[in-house]
Each structure stands twice: as C-alpha cells, then as structure tokens.
Amino acid sequence: MNVDHEITLLVEEIRRLGAPNADGKISVKFGVLFSDDKCANLFEALVGTLKAAKRKKVITFDGELLLQGVHDNVDVILLQD
C-alpha cells in the first residue's frame, strides 16, 4: 500500500472512532485505535502510518512514537478534514 492511501484510511478510522474535543477537532485515544479490529486488519504498521501522517501535518499527538500500553491514553488529533 502507498503511504498517502494509508493516511486517507487512517483519517477515516479516526473519524469513525473519535469524537470532537474541546477545540472541535476529532480526537481518539491511541489505545482505541490500536485495539480496534478493523484498524488491526487495515494497517500493517499503524505506528508507522501515524508517524507519516504526523509528518504531513494531518494529525498530531504528544511525543514522537506511540507504544501499545504505555501510550494508550494519548490523544491522536485530526488536524485536517
């Protein structure tokens, strides 16, 4: 799969699983994304797709790398529609 396509799929999944935060932007916890069955089947490397999307300023999250368990409560925030 190409990276742009995976980022598009990621945006769709964040919209499906997330909810508007205080700023009105769609936000979802990393743990919710990581443990979702559909996401697990869609993304071979969810963390890599998240990093690529952050680099392209499509999403943001605190830190450089998200790890299951340790960062389950970190918000992944959609910056673009």
From TrEMBL:
Please name the gene that encodes this protein: abracl
Q: What is this protein called?
A: Costars family protein ABRACL
Q: Which organism is it from?
A: Chanos chanos (Milkfish)
Q: What family classification does the UniProt entry report for this protein?
A: Belongs to the costars family.
An annotated GO BP: regulation of actin filament-based process
Q: Which Gene3D superfamilies match?
A: Costar domain (1.10.10.1540)
Q: Where does the Costars domain lie?
A: 1-79
Give a Pfam family name.
Costars
